[in-house]
Amino acid sequence: MQYIKWIFALCATLPSIVSGAPFDLTKATSGYLYFNLAGADMARHDGELKNCISHWASGIRPEPAPYTAGIVGIIVIDSMNAHWEGARKDINIEHCMVAKGWQLVRLPDEEGERLAKLPRNELVQALSPYVSAEQPKGEIVRTWKNETIYQSTLIGKSPEPAKRTLLSALAISADNPEIPGITSIHEVTRKEAHEARKRQHIFGIKTNKLVEATALQPGQVRLIYSVRSSKKKRQILTFIERSDPSDPMGSNFFGVFGERDALPLPDGTFLSHRSVLVPAGLWFVQGPLVNLDNCLGAPSFEAKDGTTAYLGTFDTTTDKIGVSMDMTMINEALSQSGIGATPVQWQNGFTYPCRQTLMYALEFEGFPFLENYKWGSQGRKSR
Predict the structure, then answer these.
(1) Cα(85)–Cα(320) distance, rounded to whole angstroms?
(2) What is the pLDDT of residues 24-78, one digit of tens each?
(3) At 184, phi and psi to the nearest 5?
(4) What is the predicted pLDDT for the residue at 57?
(5) SS3 assignment for 247-315
(6) pLDDT at 10
(7) What is the distance between the alpha carbons of residues 379 and 375, in angstroms, rounded to a whole number?
(8) Residue 273: beta bridge partners?
(9) Confidence of residue 233 (pLDDT cuts 50, 70, 90)
(10) Residue pLDDT, tens place only, 198-231
(11) pLDDT at 228
(12) Spatial CA neighbour of 315 closest among 205, 381, 235, 250
């Protein structure tokens, strides 16, 4: 699954990598930093930071490809991997805390350097009022902004390290474990990865008129979606995956594509429709690239056996992707096929074990949340 996603997704992300982006989720923030949440004490700070460290450390990853470059190559690759994992750790702990509702704050270098030299007990005492302040001291450099809803957000690069000192990590209480090293990450075994890759992947059946309706087999669902774009182009927007605890590598998935043969609309935009036959079950938006998981919160829906369901129109005519459940155009497209579709019930806030390079949360705006979800936009509301 991973290799197939990489091939498609790399092509889809090259334009945004070249053109630049307002958000870069592959690079940790530089400077002397701490996390702030108004009214939070150090016990909450330590507990939630520990939880984010655990999310990173327990992530599932595919096993790296076997070395083929000889002993020199092994040394170089091992060095690169250690460098890469350090950057990945920094970025993901940052992503996780921000997605929980915390703000990342940068202190002036002079003060940050002074605090970093303090013994831990003195640092905790000095940092405590900063952590809980309504108006934190320093510059607020990050809050959660649903960044992955924007097409221009950079997610396809390798994690990039930054010159930084996370004061929050230095102050973590002694009764919490130290930040784990990269060796604590669970590695999926070669056998598990091989078995996952052997499973059947799901690919959509492209059609603009949707008139060639394939009969549904027991346990199947027909999913239909539309993509509205400003140009005729082949574009991967995201991957949608079936939730299955017995399949940690996520082998049942399909891509949401824009199409080169999209139909012109009167307003100068273009519209394409696509259908795919999938197993019934719970499906969620895994992410726009294999490099990123929406494991801290993803839009999801239930696909019921024997039904034809509409995922909506994914509007890519602006940088910010929108999802509309208006059925007017899809009903017109389906009118000659004898197929009737019902809209899926999207819900934000589905969580699952993190396993990719970057972990984050995505929300489709205007849709409800699963009960008890406390990440993303709900992070600060739940405090």
Answers:
(1) 30
(2) 998 889 999 999 999 999 999 999 999 888 877 665 544 444 434 444 433 333 4
(3) -85, -5
(4) 66
(5) CCCCCCEEEEEECCCCEECCCCCEEEEEEEEEECEEEEEEECCCCEECCCCEEEEEECCCCEEEEEEEE
(6) 41
(7) 4
(8) 226
(9) confident
(10) 433 444 444 444 545 567 788 889 999 999 999 8
(11) 94
(12) 235
Question: And the tokens for 207?
Answer: 């059609």
Cα gap 361→197, rounded to integer Å: 26
CA–chain centroid gap for 239, Å, is 10
Identity of the amino acid at 176: N
- Span 261-272, pLDDT tens digits: 788 999 999 998
* Lookup result for tokens 């939070």: 40
Q: What per-residue confidence (pLDDT) applies to 113?
A: 96
* SS3 per-residue string spanning the chain: CHHHHHHHHHHHHHHHHHHCCCCECCECCCEEEEEECCCCCHHHHHHHHHHHHHHHHCCCECCCCCCCCHHHHHHHHHHHHHHHHHHHHHHHHHHHHHHCCCEEEEECHHHHHHHHCCCHHHHHHHHHHHHHCCCCCCEEEECCCCHHHECCCECCCCCECCCEEEHHHHCCCCCCCCCCCHHHCCECCHHHHHHHHHCCCCCCEECCCCCCCCCCCCCEEEEEEEEEECCCCCEEEEEEEECCCCCCCCCCEEEEEECCCCEECCCCCEEEEEEEEEECEEEEEEECCCCEECCCCEEEEEECCCCEEEEEEEECCCCECEEECCCHHHHHHHCCCCCCCEECCCEEEECCCCCCCEECCCCCCCCCECCCCCCCCHHHHCC
Angle at 216 between CA 213 and CA 221, to 5 degrees: 100
| Residue showing tokens 């097409």 | 151
Tell me the pLDDT tens digit for each residue of 298-353.
999 999 999 999 999 999 999 999 999 999 999 988 887 778 899 999 999 999 88
What is the rounded distance in angstroms from the CA atom of residue 170 to the CA atom of residue 37? 18
| Token output for 227 | 């993509």
Q: Domain map of the chain by residue range?
A: 23-149+159-184, 195-381
- Cα(323)–Cα(282) distance, rounded to whole angstroms? 19
Other C-beta atoms lying within 10 Å of the C-beta of residue 200: 7
Specify the pTM.
Answer: 0.80
Length of the chain: 383
Q: Per the structure block, which two tokens stand in for 16? A: 């945004």
List the structure tokens of 108: 């002036």
